[in-house]
Specification:
Elements: H1 2-14, H2 16-19, H3 27-33, E1 44-48, H4 54-63, E2 68-73, H5 76-85, E3 90-93, H6 99-105, E4 111-116, H7 125-138, E5 139-150, H8 157-169, E6 170-179, E7 186-194
Parallel strand pairs: 1-2, 1-4, 2-3, 4-5
Antiparallel strand pairs: 5-7, 6-7
Helix pairs in contact: 3-4, 7-8
């Protein structure tokens, strides 16, 4: 949507380190990132950095009214838009590092899936580690974590450090295929079974 792109670009210009992209993700990327959301049961799905909601829409489509979908967005205008656009989603304006307390406040014992739109390659090492600790502490033992990276970020030091962090914190990390129908092209990381 053109309005989403304008809003996203405006928020990026105000805070590039926390937004991390010039435009919302494509539907193709959203489908790849949301693939671990179970098609049965009552899963708890946590979404970090939902932005204008392309991943949110795909998660909601896959849940089809089941489970609990918690979307954690730090940016106030984006959180407001998301809450208005997706009334069935539990949207909270908060830092992703507060994830353990956010789940406790809702009486949720763990997350079955964590989907991230956060710009991991833009974060310094201490922030990457802090957020990853919060995330892995709430994942169920067999839980899944998915995120993505832009292909142009592959050689960046922070991106390499993030890939190493994933390997340290999860028993299984599988990079997905490149999603060319995204601006810029991106690929998905699928991680399962957080290490204790």
């Amino acid at each position: 949507m053109p309005n989403d792109t304008a809003l996203f670009l405006g928020q990026f210009l105000r805070s590039p380190a926390t937004i991390g992209a010039l435009a919302p993700s494509s539907r193709r990327l959203a489908e790849s990132v949301a693939a671990p959301v179970p098609e049965r049961g009552e899963p708890v799905v946590v979404e970090l950095g939902p932005g204008t909601g392309p991943f949110t829409a795909e998660i909601q489509r896959r849940l089809d009214g089941r489970g609990h979908h918690l979307a954690v967005e730090l940016n106030a205008p984006l959180a407001g838009l998301l809450a208005q656009r997706f009334p069935k989603v539990d949207v909270v304006r908060a830092d992703a590092a507060r994830l353990p307390s956010l789940l406790r406040e809702r009486g949720l014992p763990h997350a079955d899936v964590v989907v991230s739109g956060l710009p991991w390659a833009a974060f310094p090492q201490d922030l990457q580690e802090h957020l990853m600790s919060a995330l892995t502490s709430v994942l169920a033992p067999g839980g899944a974590f998915t995120t993505f990276s832009y292909i142009h970020a592959i050689p960046l030091t922070a991106a390499r450090r993030f890939r190493s962090l994933l390997a340290d914190r999860f028993e299984e990390v599988v990079p997905g295929r490149t999603v060319w129908r995204n601006a810029p092209p991106a690929f998905v990381f699928n991680a399962r079974r957080p290490r204790p």
